[in-house]
Amino acid sequence: MPRSSSGVRNEHSLAGEKLSLLAVFAHSEDEAFGPAGTLAKYASEGIEVSLVTATRNNVPTLAEEESQAHPRDRVCSCRASGIRRACLFDYRHGELNRIAPAIIEERLVRLIREIRPQVIVTLGPTGLTGDHDTHIISAAATAAFRNAGDASMFSHHLHEGLQNWSPQKLYYCLLPASVVQHWGVSGLNAVPDDEITTRLDVSPYSQAMKNALYCQRHGALDFIRRLIEDQKIEWSTEYYALMESHLRKKPKREKDLFAGLR
What we know:
Blueprint: E1 20-25, H1 30-33, H2 36-44, E2 48-56, H3 71-81, E3 85-92, H4 101-115, E4 119-123, H5 132-147, H6 156-159, E5 169-174, H7 177-183, E6 198-201, H8 206-214, H9 220-229, E7 237-245
Parallel strand pairs: 1-2, 1-4, 2-3, 4-5
Antiparallel strand pairs: 5-7, 6-7
Helix pairs in contact: 3-8, 4-5
């Protein structure tokens, strides 16, 4: 539960708070290849959806220009998913290991205290493809979830007018092994099916998901063609593991990231 500025948990401070979700990813394309349907679903329900992207792609050469993601791709993707607020940390792709983890965590804690989300979503430590940047951002998002409600952490925020805030639920966006096997797509990381706690029906938002994918220029079109042409591949469900929760009741299976909050 949230804590007061003294660090004491306040069980009543959620009353009247607008529902909010913060998605934290390493790359501009992650929200399109990961939980695009989820973001579109909750944005359509009036929940405030915010997005953090940690890195930008390196400045492309002329030959690479058409294959690299551009800032306009990200704007397009956010609009397609209904994301109203996006933040770019603007680190260089593949160079997060040069940044002190505490610096990334502090930036995330600052945003959490400003946005005040109840739910945080990020990719699991290995991401969908084992990318090292994703591992770093997943760890930073997890640490920020734990520490944003602790008034002793980054206490200078208080002097800037930011009160500490404890998000209630942290989810990793994952792919179950049975789905990846059914798709027959190589190179994707998967987890055992029993690690999945939450399955979201995002079938009503399939067009928004495809629009978000079309915004990306590197490899997305080939994936979309297969998504459309191969009838075995259906992206109608998105999968999560509830990693941490401050709620008293922790159901083993959910159909809503905001279960217990509304």
